[in-house]
Structures are given as C-alpha cells and as structure tokens.
Amino acid sequence: MGLFGKKGKAETSSCCCGGNCTPAKIEQAEAAKTTKGIKVLGSGCAKCNALKEATCAALAELNMDTTIEHVTDFTQIAAYGVMTTPALVIDGKVVSYGKVLKKEEAKALIQKVRG
C-alpha cells in the first residue's frame, strides 16, 4: 500500500544514540552509573550549563568539595534512563531531569541523597 509515501522505503532500526552505541560503549556507560559523584547529563546547552552552575553554588554553600562531571555522550545519558535533559545525578541516582534546578533545590537534593 502506498499511503503517505512509504512505498518502497526500507525500514531501519535505530536507537536513541543514532546507532552509535556498541557493546563496549554500553558496558562503559553501565559501569559509569555505579561511580560516586555528581553529574550533569545533557548536550552542553544553556540549560545544562545553568544546572551545573546552580549545583556548583549549592555545593559551595554546603562546603562540599566535589567535582561535577558534565556527561554529553548520549549512550551514557541513555544508560541512566534519562530521555529529557538536563538531568542531575548524585552518586549514581537520577534525582532530577527535564528542568533547571535553582540553587536551593539542588542543595536540598544533595542533602537528601548524601544526608
């Protein structure tokens, strides 16, 4: 049936990373999920950078000397089950996704997880 111009097109399967994931990359992404620390997941857009800045300010107020890793690899982001960025990960646990947190919100989440 030739509805909507789909006649003759081969169907391709792809994943969220555009087909760039390999078994080694997937294994590496899964291993990264178990590491301690704070991560911002996202492409590096203004929203991701704003979340990183708010988290840095929250850590400074809490007198915590923790480095924030900015993860831009979509294979690693997908390994966390995140489909909407920016996202905040604390000690391997996704605590926020899809919005830019204010400093006080980030501070409350850090205190809750690291308690």
Q: How much is the radius of gyration in Å?
A: 18 Å
Order of strands, widest sheet: 2-1-3-4
Number of helices: 4
| Global geometry | globular
Report the end-to-end length measured between terminal Cα atoms.
Answer: 60 Å
Oligomer: single chain
- Total strands: the figure is 4
Helix and strand pattern: HEHEHEEH
Average of the residue pLDDT scores: 83
Strand content: 5-15%
Low-confidence stretches: 9-14
Helix content: 25-40%
The chain-level structural class is alpha+beta
Taking the sheet with the most strands, its summary is:
4 strands, mixed
Topology readout:
Elements: H1 23-32, E1 38-41, H2 46-61, E2 68-71, H3 74-79, E3 87-90, E4 93-97, H4 103-114
Parallel strand pairs: 1-2
Antiparallel strand pairs: 1-3, 3-4
Helix pairs in contact: 2-4
Task: Give a quick precis of the structure.
The protein has four helices and four strands, in the order H-E-H-E-H-E-E-H.
Can you characterise this structure?
By secondary structure, the chain is an alpha+beta fold. The protein has helices spanning 23-32, 46-61, 74-79, 103-114; strands at residues 38-41, 68-71, 87-90, 93-97. The protein contains four helices and four strands. The chain has a four-stranded mixed sheet. Mean pLDDT is 83; it is low at 9-14.
Provide keyphrases for this structure.
115 residues, alpha+beta, 4-stranded mixed β-sheet, globular
